[in-house]
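thread: overnight batch results

M.L. [08:02]
morning all. the overnight job finished for the chain we discussed friday. pasting input first so we're all looking at the same thing
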Amino acid sequence: MFESLKSKINLCSIAVLLLQFSFAWAQVSTPPDSSSRKAQAVIDSSKISPINKLLTNPNQDPTSKSDIKAADVGLSKPVDYTYKTMITEKTENGRVTRLLGDATVKFGDITIKAGKITILWNDNLLIAESLPDSGNGANGPDSLKVKQTGRPTFSDGKETMVGDRMEFNFKTEKGRILRGRTKFQGGHYQGDIVKIVDPSVFNVAEGKYSSCDKEEPHFHFRGKQMKVILNDKVIVKPVIFFIGKIPLAIFPFAMFPTKENGRQSGVILPQYGTSPAEGRYLRNGGFYWATNDYMDVRFNLDFFEKTGILFRSNVNYKLRYKFSGAVSGSYTRKTFDGTKQRRWNLDIRHNQTIDPNSNLSVSASFVSNNSFYREFSANRSQRLTRQLRSNATFNKRWSEGRNSLSLNLSQTKDLENGRNTVTLPQFRFTRGQSAIFPFKKDETGRSKKVPKWYNSIRYSYKGFLLNTVQKDSTGDPDAQIDRRAEHDIRLSFTNPKKLFGWLSLSQSFNYDEDWFDRKKSFSLADSTNVFEPTEEKGFAVRRTFQYSTSASTNLFGTFYPKIGPIRAMRHKMSPSLSFSYRPDFSDKVWGYYAVLEDTSGQERRLDKFRSTPRGKSMSMNYSLNNLFQMKLGEGENEKKINLFNLNFSSGYNFAADSLKMGALTTSFRASPRKNFTISAALGHSFYKYDEELKRTINRFISPRLTRFSIDARWTLRGKKSNRSSGGSQAAAGGPASTLNQQQTQAGLSGQPQDGFSPESAFSAFDIPWRASLSFSYSLSKSNPFNPTKRAYVDLSGVEVQLTKKWRIGYRLRYDLEGTEIVDQRISFYRDLHCWEARFNWNPSGIGAGYYFKINIKSPHLSSVKLERRGGTTTIFRPF
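M.L. [08:03]
and the structure it wrote out:
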C-alpha cells in the first residue's frame, strides 16, 4: 500500500525546504454576476469631452469643494469631492461631472484620488484616470513616452491601492482597477484586473504577490486567480513560484497569511526524518483552523514508511474569566507483528471558574493499550510516562485570603502492572499565617503604640483527609483500602528589633505539630537483610521545632584627601552574625525513628512517619562585607563611584564531630570602567590535608589556600557611524535590522551556542564593530599535592560591518594550559534585499562543520528557505 509513496518522500522533503508556506481552501469567490455588468462596464470617457483644454490652472491648489447629498442621487451615503476644475454637462446618458487636477472623491470610508475623475450619475459610476504631464508631453525629450501624473488611488481608510484606471459603483460599492498595485503588512500585490468585491476583499486576475519592493521583484508568487482579504489572507490558484523570471515550482493553490497579530488558519507542513523502527517518516503535517476567538482546532497526520499512518487532533477552547480546556486524541490502524491493529488515545482537560474565589478543574487520560505512548509519542518525557492520571479538583478560597479548601477525586493506572488506585476523596483545609494576638490599629490603619513581643507570634494550620481504594489488574474484589488523616499545626515567632539605634537583631522560632492516624513499624528479613515496613493504625503525633537569630549593622568611615578631582573616600563595613539550632529528631528520645540493628550489627534508623528531619543542626555563620566608594567634583558636577567590593565569610558547626570550622571565603569585584570588569574569589581551609589518607584531617593550622579564581572581561565597541553605509543603515531600520531579538542576544552573549543554530549567527547591528575579550584563570588545591589549573582566553561577539551588505563575525576560545583552540567559529551574513544568507563555519572542535541558510526576510514567508549542513559528526550529516 505504501510502496508507491516511498519514492515521493524525497520530493516532499525538497518541497518542504523550497516552499514552507501554509495552504488553504482553493475556492476563490466568483466574479460579480451579469446584473452588475452595466455599472462596471468600461466607458470610453474620452468621447465625452477633451481633457487638457479644460484645465484652467493645473498648478493651483484644489480650493473648490462640493458635496452631493445622498438623497439627491438615491445613494446610501453622501458624495464629497474636491478639485481644481469641475465641468458638469448633460449627455445622452444623463448628467456627467468631470473633476480635473488633484481630484478627490469621498464616499463614506472610501477615498478615491486621481488626476481626472468622471462621475456618471445615472449609472452611479465613477471613473478615475491619470492625466498627461504637461511638462513632458509630445514636444519633450521622448515624444513616444508621455509621463502620466495623478495616478488613481483607492483607499478604504486603512490600505491604499494604485492603478492605471479605476471604476467604482456607488450603489453596489463594487468596482475594478486596471493594472492595480498595493502594499500592506509587508507584502506587495499587483494584478492586471483587480475587482473590488467590498472595501476589504479584492479579486485579482493575473496577480502577483511578493515581499520584495522592486518594480521587477527578485521573487514572486503568480496566479491566474487571486483573492486578497485585508488583514487576513491571500488565496491564489494555481500558484507558480518565481525567482526572478524563472518558474521554480507550481502548486494547485496556496494561501499566504497576512495577519500581523493573532492566529491564522492554514496547512502545517510535515517534518521529514528517519528512524530504525519506522523507516522514513513525515511527522506533524496537517491543518490548523482558527475557528473563532474562543476556539481552535488542529488536525495532524504522521506517515511512517514501515507501519502506516497516525491521525491526531486537538481542540482548544477558552472564554476568559469563565472556562478553558482542551480535547486531544489520536488514532491509527497500523501493522504490529504482521497484523493490523487499532490503537488510540484520548486526553481531556477542563477548567471552570465558578466565582472569583472558586474553581473546578477536570483532567482525564485514556489509551487503547499500555504501550501506546512508548510506541507513538515523539516526546521523550511522555514516552517514559508509566502512569495514566485522571483528576477532578474543586478549590475554594475565602475572601480574606487566609483560608482555603481543596477537594479532589482521582484515579491512577500503572501501565506496567495494570494496578488502579482510586482516591475518593482527598480533602485539604489550609489556614494561612495569622497572629494569635493581633496588633490593633485605629480606623486610619495607624497606631501610636509600639507592638509587643507577643504580637509577633503567628500560627498556621493544614488538615488532610484521604481515602484510597487500590485494585490489581485482575479486578480482585479484595481490594486494598487505605484511609488516612493528617494535621499540621505550625507556630512561628519573629521578633525584629533595633538595639542602641544601630544594631539590627532578629529572632525566629518555628514549631510544627503533625497528627497521623498511623505509623510504621519494621521487621528484619534475615534472608535479605532488609527491613520490611508494616503500618500500625492509631493516633500518633510528631512535634518538631527550630530556632534562629541574627544580628547585623553598618559602620562608615570617611576621609577627605582632596587630591585632584577626588573630594571624599568612604569605607562601608557591614558585619553580620547568625545562629540556628535544630535537634536530631532521629534520636531515640523523640521516638520518631525506629533504631534497629541489621544482621551485620550495624545500627539503622528508619522513619516511622515521612520526611521527619534527621541530624542535629547547630551552626553559626559570620560575614564582613566591605564597599569602597569615591566622590568626584562638587555641586552639579558631583559624581559618586563604587570602587570595589571586598567580602569575607565563614562559619562554625557546633554539631559536627570534626572539621567544625568552615572554610574562609573571600570575594573581590571591581568595575573601574563601564566596559571593564574584574572579579576574584579565594577559599582557605583551617585544617591540614593528609597526603597518605588523601583527605582533610581534624588538625587545625593557619589558613591554607584551597581555591583561587580570577576573571577579567573587556568589552570594545566602535563609535556609531554617520555614514550612509555600514552601521547607520542598520540603525535606521535597514536590512541589518531585520534580525530578531534572539539573534541579537546570541551574538552578544559570548557563550558557546548551538553548533549551527542560525539564530546565533549575528545580532542586529547598528555600529561598525564590536568585540568582547575575557580572561579566566582557576586554581584548585583541595589536594595541595595535586593542584589543577585552568586558563582560557575568550574572544567573543566580534562583528564587523565590512560593507553595506556584508557582515562578518568571529568567536574563539583558547585553552592556555592545553595550548589549543577549544572552540572557533567564523560567520558571514549577506543582505540580499528581500532575501538574506548566512554561513557559519566551525573549523575545529566537537561541532566542526558548516551551516548555510538562505531565506526570505518577510516574517510571513520566513519558512521559504534552503538549508545545508555538513560536519564531522552525525549531528550535521545532511540527509
